């Protein structure tokens, strides 16, 4: 029983360890899948934000471009007016053009800066679009996701298989435990049927030692000793029964021989009572045709002494 409990505990520990490892692998795969989805969502949000920033800056550039074009048109018109006007009357327009030149230069510088920044943002947006496309439609990401799902399904299948195997082991253990319990019950009933006597020395030793382990060993040794004695008694009984059977067989042969001798005696007596010579010759001829056990005529007194002695029945 102790060995069975140990085997059961070992199987349970191994199965639980395998289940925990499978659950840990499953949790790790689910964590990786969640991280991949989080990274994909962050990249999509970043791409949307960059696109919105690009649209906003494009609108600013369009506004500045329109303003620059209007200023350029006003400059061209001022030059034409200055050329058309006389020299004395063009001092006011020339002063206005001189005042507009720094503003135009500043606007041009700002437009150049915005165009350069816009170009940098466009390059960054292209990179983000490439990354987004890599996250969304890349074969590597799809293969990685498919691999993770396949591993997850495989892990579920292994868990189901291990669960069924654990149930089968549990059923087998129940069968073994039931068989051992029945055998233990039979031994206990047999031990209860045969009273045992324990000596004082054994009783003191059992009382001083462990009351569970040592007592079990003592009774187990007693049972083994009694089983050996029972086996020896069975062999002795079998031997005596064989001898008794042989005795009955020999007695049957002796009885048949006795009956044959009595029959022979009756026949010889009948032949002796007839008393005629011819009859005597016929009797001698008949006697010569039948095999006799003795060459001489058997003594009647000796034949009468042959009696059937029944065999004595054995107490076994």
Observed structural traits:
single chain; 316 residues; Helix Hairpins; 0% strand; rod-shaped
List strands and helices in order, with pairings:
Blueprint: H1 2-84, H2 91-137, H3 139-193, H4 200-208, H5 213-274, H6 277-289, H7 300-304
Helix pairs in contact: 1-2, 1-3, 2-3
3D architecture notes:
The protein is mainly alpha-helical and 316 residues long. It has two domains: 2-176, Orthogonal Bundle (Helix Hairpins), CATH 1.10.287; 218-304. The protein is 87% helix and 0% strand. It is built from seven helices and no strands. Helix 2 (91-137) packs parallel to helix 3 (139-193). The model is unreliable at 85-94, 290-298 and 303-309 (pLDDT under 50).
What's the short version?
With 316 residues, the protein is mainly alpha-helical. The protein has seven helices and no strands.
Class derived from helix and strand content: mainly alpha
Give the name of the CATH architecture of the largest domain: Orthogonal Bundle
Low-confidence stretches: 85-94, 290-298, 303-309
Q: Order of helices and strands, N to C?
A: HHHHHHH
* Helix content range: over 70%
Envelope shape: rod-shaped
| Name of the CATH first level of the largest domain | Mainly Alpha
Mean pLDDT: 71
Q: Profile the largest sheet.
A: none
Count of strand segments: 0
Number of structural domains: 2
Proportion of beta-strand residues: under 5%
How widely separated are the two ends?
39 Å
CATH topology of the largest domain, by name, is Helix Hairpins
Provide a count of the helices. 7
Rounded to an integer in angstroms, the radius of gyration calculated over CA atoms is 62 Å
